[in-house]
Amino acid sequence: MEKEKQVYQMLDQVYDPELDQPLTELGFIDHIVIEGSIVEVIFRLPTYWCSPNFAYIMAEDIHKYVSSLNWVEEVKVNLIDHCASNEINQGVTKGKAFSESLTAFSGSDGDLDELRKTFQIKAFYARQEKMIKHLLYQLDMTKEKIVSILHSDLISLNLSKEGQLIRTKYFEKKNLFNHSSPLAFTTPEGESLTIESFSDYLLGAKRTRLSMEFNGHYCRGLLEARYKLPSIKEQESTINN
Predict the structure, then answer these.
(1) What CA dihedral angle connects 111, 114, 120 and 121, to 10 degrees?
(2) Contacts 24+ apart (CB under 8 A), 112-120
C-alpha cells in the first residue's frame, strides 16, 4: 500500500500539457500494477484519436516521475484504447524520441520541446491571472502595487489557505522560466508589466485560463461518457454522503 501511495504521489506531478491539470485529477490514470520493483501504469484518454504528441508527453512524464522512486527498477507505461497505443508504449519504454516512435506523425512535430514550451507559457498565463485576481479582489491590492511587488514580498505575504495554494502553483510555473527580474509579475519573457498595459494583459491571460478550463471540462465529459464514469458532482455527492 505504501508503494502504491508513492507511485500515485509521483503521478500527481504529471500534467496534461494542454489542460494544466494532473492526470490523477482528470481521471486519466486507469490503474497501476506493482510487482516487486516493476511498476506498470495503465492510462487512458478521452478519445481514441487524442493528439499523439500530447499523449507522448504524458507517457514520457509518467515514465520519468515514477522512475525517480528509489525502489523502482522498471516502469511500463501502457496507454490503452488509443490509435497510437503500441507506438507510444514501445517508444517511451525504450527511451525513443517522439519522431522515432511515430514516423507517421513526426512531420508535424519532430521533437516535443517546442510544444512543451508553448503550453508552459499558456499555463504560466493562467496561473498568473489567478494570482493577480486573488490580490486584486481578496486583498484589495492596487494595480500599481501589483506591477511593482517583488518576488520576495509576494512569498512573504500573509495569504489565506486558498491564496497560498494559488501562490504555490504560480511559482511552480514561474520558476521554470528562470527570470532574472526581482519582480513577482512579468511577462513570460521576463519583461516588466506596466500600468498602461495592465488591463489588456490581464484580459489576455484570463482568456487563456478560460480556454484551458473549458477544454478541461470538455475532456472530462468525453472521458466520463467513454468509460461510463460518474461525474465529478456525483463523486462529490458520494463522498459527502
Answers:
(1) -170
(2) 112/53, 112/56, 112/57, 112/60, 115/17, 115/53, 115/54, 115/57, 116/17, 116/57, 119/17, 119/18, 119/20, 120/17, 120/173, 120/176, 120/177
Strand-pair partners of 43: 29, 79
pLDDT in tens, 99-113: 887 765 655 445 788
Q: Is the dihedral of CA 134, 135, 141, 147 positive or negative?
A: negative
Q: What is the distance in angstroms between the CA of the first residue and the CA of the last residue of the chain?
A: 26
| Residues 123-151 pLDDT 10s | 999 999 999 999 999 999 999 999 999 99
Which stretch of 33-42, 71-80, 223-232 has the lowest confidence by average pLDDT?
223-232
Buried b (16+ CB within 10 A) or exposed e, 32-57: bebeeeebebebbbbeeebbbbbbbb
Query: How far is the C-alpha of 184 from the C-alpha of 97, rounded, in Å?
Result: 35
pLDDT-derived band at 233 (thresholds 50, 70, 90) equals: low
